[in-house]
Amino acid sequence: MSQKLSVKNKVAEKLGLDIYADTMIRVIQNPAEADAAGLHLDFVQLSFSNTFISRCDTWRFQLYLGMTTVFLGKKVEMSGMEATVKEMLIGDKPAKCGVITHATKLTFRTRSAQVFWLVQMSQEMWEFSPDGELKFETFLNRFTQDVFNGWKALQCNHCLSIILFSRIFYDVDSIEELPEEMRAGAGVDAQGEHHNGKLLKVYRDFYKPVVMNSMLQEDSRKSVVSVLWEEFVKYPTHLGFTHGGSGREGGVLWRKEPLETDRQHGGLQNTKRSGEELREIDIEATRLL
Are strands 159-170 and 198-215 parallel, antiparallel or unpaired? Predict the structure, then answer.
């Protein structure tokens, strides 16, 4: 029986269909038939924009897309989340269309993600690079600008949070020698930090969130850079530090002023070698699970 079939021009172009051409339509009802017809997709890449997705969302998407026909550029929507089909493979060959089954490997890409920057404010941040910039200025003027420009070129809408952190070492032999109000959260690092011929092992970690859940539009990018510079200037004061002069060759140390409750326990800021990066990564990873 002859019938007319009408499809959008965009779809016809992607599938290579000619106007008024004869076409055979076959209904695929199960994965075995899709495989026999050479239409079973082995790999599909889906791209999200302006949508934050979790692991459970990707699992639901995979169930939802079972036995679904897709083509390159097709937009698929589920529960308000919209994804675009970006790449498909049948075997190891690119495909223009096909059928997604529960055996299809789905890869999810998003241009809207929650991004966390953990910036270690070690002594080196106040050192000068060979080009005359402070290391923090290099982070601010190069790293952040390169990342922001890359996100802008890709039309990403990430939600950014930035946390500054430091480890302060104290000139004591055990945690018990610290004032009682300072012992909570204190620890002992076997490698420690060397200062004036002594190995300081007792430490406390400090954190300062400076940007939280900022949606990066054009003006907010400039605002983030401005906030980071302002927080950098205030950071030593925030920890109770004053400039301590040149503590080691080519570097600057910040010595903690004795506070009213801490007259005998001046602190020393960590170098990047004795930082707590792995702990911070673990904290963020645990928070996101």
Answer: antiparallel
Other C-beta atoms within 10 Å of 167: how many? Answer: 23
CATH label of the domain that carries residue 91 = 3.10.330.10
Specify if 2 maps to a domain.
no
Residue 135 CA neighbour count, 13 Å, CB half: 14
At 96, list the tokens: 């223009």
Count of positions (residues) in the chain: 289
Number of domains in the chain: 2
- Regarding whether 104 and 119 lie in a shared domain, the answer is no
* Token pair of 284 as six digits: 């963020």
Q: Which domain holds residue 41?
A: 9-110
Q: What is the pLDDT of residues 35-65, one digit of tens each?
A: 777 788 999 999 887 777 778 888 888 888 8
**Is 1 domain-assigned?**
no
Encode 88-116: b = buried (16+ Cβ within 10 Å), e = exposed: bbbeeeebebbbbbeebebebebeeeeeb
Q: What is the pLDDT of residues 76-130, one digit of tens each?
A: 888 888 888 989 999 889 998 888 888 899 988 888 888 889 898 887 888 888 8
Whether residue 41 sits in one domain with residue 164: no
DSSP 50: S
Cα 16 to Cα 18: distance, rounded to the nearest angstrom: 7
* 210 part of a folded domain: yes
- C-alpha span between 90 and 126 (Å, rounded): 54
Tokens of 288: 């996101």
